[in-house]
Amino acid sequence: MMEILPQLIVSGLAAGSLYALMALGMILIFKTTDVVNFAHGDMAMISSFVALTLMRGYHQPYWLAVLAAIAMGFVLGALADLILRPARNAPILTLLIATLGISLMLSALGGHFFGYQTVSFPYALVGKPFVIAGVILTRHNALALGVAAALGLGLFALLKYTSVGTAMRAMAQNRLAAQLMGVNVRRVSTLSWGLGAALGAVAGVLIAPVVFLDLNTMITVLIKAFAAAVLGGFTSLLGAVVGGLLLGVLENLVGGYLSTQLQTTFVFLLIIVMLAIRPRGLLGAPVAGRRA
Amino acid sequence: MRARWPWVLLLVALLALGPQFLKSYQVYLLSLAAVYALAALGLNLLTGYAGQISLGHAGFLAIGGYSAALLQVKLAWPLWASLPAAGLLTALLGLVLVIPALRLSEIYLAIATLGFGVAVEQLLPQWAWTGGHQGFSIPRPELFGLALNSDLAFYYLILAVGLALVWIAANAVRAPLGRAFVAIRDNELAAQALGISLARTKSYAFLLSAFYTGIAGALYANLVGYLNVSTFNLGLSILLLSMIAVGGLASIPGSLLGAAFLGLLPQVLSGFSAWVPQFIYGAALLLVVIFMPYGIWGFLLQTVGRGRGLMRSARRLFPGPRAESGSTGGDDHA
Amino acid sequence: MLELQGVTMRFGGLKALDEVSFRVEPDRIVGLIGPNGAGKTTVFNLISRFYHPSSGSIRFNGIELTHLSAHEIIGKGIARTFQNLGLFPYLTVMDNLLLGQHCRVRTPVLLQALHLPGARHEDRQMRVRAGQLLEQVGLAQLAPAYVAGLPYGVQKIIEFCRALVARPRLLLLDEPAAGLTSAETEAMAGFIRGARDQFGVTVLLIEHDMSLVMKLCERVIVMDFGQVIAEGTPAQIQHDPQVIEAYLGRPAEEAPHA
After folding, report:
1. Are strands B146-147 and B142-143 parallel, antiparallel or unpaired?
2. Which of B278, B281, B312 should one mutate to test binding to chain A, selecting the residue with the greatest count of A CBs within 10 A?
3. How many CB atoms lie within 10 A of CB C6?
4. Cβ count near C95 (within 10 Å)
């Protein structure tokens, strides 16, 4: 039993890196605009279908299709921001429900344009897997890990070293103060939405080959990404990465050692236990000196 | 208070007599909407009033439905016993969620309750008597020797149970219990200083909410006559949440309106080709919450110009992890 | 009546309270003063059981409070107000005052839900009591108003009423006059004195308005850097060299002179 452990961990990390990418997008949107985006999965679904249509229907190369998916993600995110603008001050639960409305609309459009069947999606890289010390790492998984790491680091750099990033962080802290300091909050909020959804699109095209693509597969991924984001602390980008990777590994370990039928149940049980220990998530702010 | 009774009586009369003029299938749909309304009411007691968000209420519906079915079919319990028993059983299981609710709030509690829903959905098919993933048929029951075969007869059963439960909820939210719900939602520290126990109040909130949803589940089982665990998925939990957000948080009429609106809308739209109803449904959801942030009922109250503050209660709900907890603690130790 | 003995409170490495000991005698109005950050609100939060002390004991009429939960404190006869208002803004003034009497509710939840005569009777009684108190402070007409829209000064008075309507024996007031106009402060002082004279309530209050403290309080406890540095009548502490030193160099309005 123990010999499969490294393998389970490595594959778990690969899956987890994609949850992390999805979670990063959600958190970026939440931090700057206070919206928990439940349409994130459907945005990724539409973007992935756009890529697939370009490749299958119009015989475009993979890289171009992926670029188109990213652009599609950005546009969908920016559109959602425009649509939600009138409700900016509504309660968070209301905003969450509004994104559900967007999710249903996107899903309906997806069904209309791309059909209801489940389709396969090409891998970016095919070929012999890497074998390191007996652990198999498929090329696709290696790519997923690499892309997630690169985009994660890129996002950190963007937030830390660019003026747009500073504006985003300022908005996350205090929207009004940011506005007074001359931040164009509308533009920054649109940009955050676009970037967040674009990250989701990247996650989408990398997940689609593994889980296949239909109207609903991305929703399952979204729920896991959401859980990962919350596990990480929901306002922490690093938390999203940690939460995503942890969730991916946990999922694999539970599937490998405990039960595949009750996999999700056990994973959520573990998440709840971890949250009970850290009620604000692994990297969220701790609850101030209060007795439980 | 004063002006309310005539309206309530009018509504009850309409609900009692109206279905006489409807087709059987329409009565069935109305019954289904009423079952949703009960479940939404249960969720609103927990989320709207007590501020405890749940993304797992489909789990309670499932528990209510399956336990009622089990009691009736396997143990041959009569309806009058199995219905309340299903509610009580669900209520007791609802207490399980109090454990995370004492530690977690807002989005963290949302994940914990979501996990509960997933667990119910995955665990139920594990037992043979639930029919696994194939499902489970339940004949329409009889009540005191009276067959409830017809949709109309069963509608009247749901109406009677529903009215009683709405009346109880209306009492509860205006009683000390309901005030305690709002108190722990808006300020846990101040609530405790007033003698309100968080553990007790959250327990009551989950008990009451799960009881209502469990009864709704039991009625659902008998109404539809067939249970399949895939019905009780996250989508249903989210639908219930949408109902109370659309109707109005922390409002009993809001729960009922939201359930009627979202429960009946798909039927109204069923004439269109496949993707259109879903698109309109999503758009309706989006538009209602954007332009009526306090729900349809809040919007109605605002346009009539009363009770603005009441509906504003929703604003503080689920403020997200950024909000400071314990802000009343003062700054002395900083 | 209230007795703190060697109470120490650490937040991480920070010592917010260091061996704090003092007593509050019955039927007194006692002021708890000190510069910002002295630990005054921490004392209140310890008595309210929002925090658990690192060491020390807090006794009230012989009962050790540190063994109780936060929600059990009011039942022992201690009610409080908050520095930044602990009212429920989306409830009416009347509902807030009914919540103030929550610790006196005897009707079981099941009977509340069935709206039986017992529940109705208790509800009526609580409403009458709340109404009488509002009448006394001249705010009876505001009973059905939502708290959210009311002026700050009015909210302060309503929160004071909510604490008083529980009929406590000890009232903890955290800056009752902060943010009030001088006329409102005057009125508040009258209400506090009235609470003591009419209902026999002992009062422990944190306040920065020194003229109010000097006028209202019979005893004053001075804290600085988490320690009690002086205790006595207003006249005594005004001349206490340690107190003067603690306030030296601080903004003039905080100096303990009337």
Report:
1. antiparallel
2. B278
3. 13
4. 21
Neighbouring residues of B117: CB distance < 8 A, sequence distance ≥ 6: B55, B56, B57, B58, B59, B232, B233, B234, B237
What is the Cα–Cα distance from C159 to C181, expressed in whole angstroms?
17
Rounded-to-integer distance, Cα A273 and Cα A217, Å: 27
Chain A residues whose beta carbon lies within 8 Å of the beta carbon of residue C16: none
* DSSP H/E element including C209: none
Binned at pLDDT 50, 70 and 90, residue C248 comes out as low
Q: What average pLDDT score do residues A90-104 get?
A: 86
Q: Are B286 and A83 in contact (CB under 8 A)?
A: yes
What is the interface pTM, i.e. ipTM, of the complex?
0.91
Task: With residue A47 as reference, give the H or E element that holds it.
Answer: helix A40-58
- Residue B58: which domain range? 26-232
Q: What is the pLDDT of residues C126-162, one digit of tens each?
A: 999 999 999 999 999 999 998 988 999 999 999 999 9
Distance between CA atoms of residues C207 and B41, nearest Å: 45
Using CB atoms, pick whichever of C11, C12, C52 lies closest to residue A291.
C52
Place of tokens 């004195």: C193
Q: How many domains does chain B have?
A: 1
Q: What is the DSSP letter of B74?
A: I
Query: Which pair of structure tokens corresponds to residue C34?
Result: 């000190």
Q: Are A203 and A44 in contact (CB under 8 A)?
A: yes
Closest residue to B274, CB basis, from A97, A111, A284: A111
Mutation target vs B (from A76, A96, A221; most B CBs, 10 A cutoff) = A96
Contact C40, C130 (CB under 8 A): no
> What is the arithmetic mean of pLDDT over A203-209?
93
> With bands split at pLDDT 50, 70 and 90, how would you rate the model's confidence at B306?
low
- For residue B269, tell me if it sits in a domain: no
Task: Identify the DSSP state of C145.
Answer: S
Written as six digits, the tokens of B137 are: 């048929």
pLDDT category at A291 given cuts 50, 70, 90 is very low
The mean pLDDT value of chain A amounts to 88
**Is B284 a domain residue?**
no
User: For residue range A33-43, what is the model confidence (pLDDT) as tens digits?
Assistant: 888 999 999 99
Fold topology of C2-77+168-254: Rossmann fold (3.40.50)
Cα–Cα distance, A208 to B49 (Å, whole number): 41
Angle at B295 between CA B161 and CA B209, to 5 degrees: 35
- Collapsing DSSP states into helix, strand and coil, what is residue C174? strand
B320 within some domain: no
Domain spans of chain A, in order of start: 2-215
- Helices A139-161 + A5-33 axis angle, to 10: 30
CA–CA gap between residue B95 and residue B208 (Å, rounded)? 10
d(CA A29, CA A18): 17
pLDDT at res. B333: 36
- pLDDT tens for residues A220-261? 888 899 999 998 888 888 889 999 999 999 988 988 888 888
Q: What are the pLDDT digits (tens) for C7-35?
A: 999 988 889 999 999 999 999 999 999 98
From the CA of B39, how many Å to the nearest CA of chain C? 18
| B 301-320 residues with CB < 8 A to C | 308-310, 312-313, 315-316
Domain membership flag for residue B169: yes
Identify residue B288 by its one-letter amino acid code: V
Contacts of A145 (CB under 8 A, 6+ apart): A13, A14, A17
3-state secondary structure of B7: helix
Q: pLDDT class for B311, splitting at 50, 70, 90?
A: very low
Q: Summarize chain A as % helix, strand, coil (round to 5).
A: 75, 5, 20
Closest alpha carbon within chain A to B48:
A93
> What is the CA angle B258-B259-B263, rounded to 5?
120
Q: Which chains, if any, share at least 3 CB pairs under 8 A with chain C?
A: A, B
